[in-house]
Structures are given as structure tokens and as C-alpha cells.
Amino acid sequence: MTDRYAAYGKLKLDRPAERILRITFSNPSSYNSVDGETHGQLTDIWREIDRDPQTNAVIVTGEGKAFSSGGDFGLIEEMAGDYDVLMRVWKEAKDLVYNIVNCNKPIISAINGPAAGAGLVVGLLADISVAGKAARIVDGHPRLGVAAGDVAAIIWPLLCGMAKSKYYLLTGKPLTGEEAERIGLVSLCVDDDELQETVLGIASDLATGSQSAIRWTKYSLNNWLRSAGPIFDTSTALEMLGFMGPDVREGVASLREKRKPNFNPDCPV
Against a cut of 0.90, is the pTM above it? Predict the structure, then answer.
């Protein structure tokens, strides 16, 4: 990989074909969880890709049996206890979404296995999302004790409608790849052994097509997302507010102990 991407050592980068850049979440021992450094690099890399004249299409996938399990417990606990860390991650979370929306290159996600948190942001904001049948898509924010921020409010209702969005975001129930395709949350679902080949084929078609036509079409369509910016900003701010409350501590503890959370049923909100 060229010096252009030397600063992104927490992400595995390669070129599976000419003018195609592949980003792989590479922390398989923890289902490709995202720590603080990875979160920052995942936020910034889209600006570099936008300026890269050698890249016409981007693939995002995960190493091993998972796409990405989202933020690791260490990062979550830092956010809950440190205002400066919380504000840094808040800015990164906003920039991550807007940087993907504004990146001029088409992005294709290959969602293999579990997908949540910051990884799911990229998986669902990708211009074309392809899930394997073993995919397990879940927005676990309420299970953690915080509002469904990140990308949920800006993209889920647009993809699969308000009724399905509320059902899955409020309950935190997971979706298989097949169910995600059925309700329109992802573009395609394919057999797991065909996932990477399918995505590479799509990326190759996009990388060799009319670049001005593809990029201008993406820009135009993404105005739907830009128009929802205030909805996204509110959801992310409320998510961060939740990290300052007691529920997130119980949420993390229950996840570490692999038990059902015991949230206080009373709430002043």
C-alpha cells in the first residue's frame, strides 16, 4: 500500500483489483471490535479516499467470521468516565457518517457474520450493501443503555421504513442477512461462499464505469441523507448524553457478565 495510507495501520488495506481499495476490519480475536485508535482512522480515511486518484471503488469487509462487533468495551468505558474522550468520539461519530456520505467514490460492503456499532455504520451507509446468509445485523445501543445514535436514525427509516426501524431499533433484535434483504435494509443477500466474489464483481463494474456519472449519481442520491442531517445530529447527541448516565454502566456490566441487564424502570425523561 502507498504512503498515502501509511497513517491507517489499524485497518487492513489492500487492492484486490485495479483501482479498487479494500478495507478489512482486522481484529478477529474480538470479532473485529473497534478501539479508540481504529475509530479515529475509520473516520478520517474517507477523506483520503475521496482525494485518491488511483481509487474508483471501495470494498469494506471483516476478517474471519465477523464484519465488526462495534466499539470495544474499553472504549465504551472510557467514554462513560471521561468527558474529553466522550466529546472526541462524538465528533468522530458525526464526521464518520458525513465523511462517508461525502466521499465521491462508491462504497460496497461485504457483511460477513456479526455487524454492529461503528462497523455497521459503514456496512449500511455503503452505497451497495451485500450480506452473507450468516450475517447477524444488530443495533445494540438500547441494550447498552444509550439512544440509537451513530447511523440508525438517518438511514434505517429510509431503507426499510419507520415500522421496521422502530421494531428493530427499540428491541435490539438481530436480523439475518436474508431478513435484512427482505425488508430492504441491505441491497443483496448471497450465500456466504459467494459473498466476496459477488462484492468484487460489483466493485469492478463500478471501477470501470463512467466515473463522472457514478459519482454524480451518488452525490445526488445522498442529498436524501444530507437533508436528514438534523435528525442524525440529534440522535448522536442524545446517544452521547446517555454515556453520562447510569444505564450504560449497567449495560456494559451485563454484557461483560453475559446476563440480562437490570435497568432502573423509573426514568425522569
Answer: yes
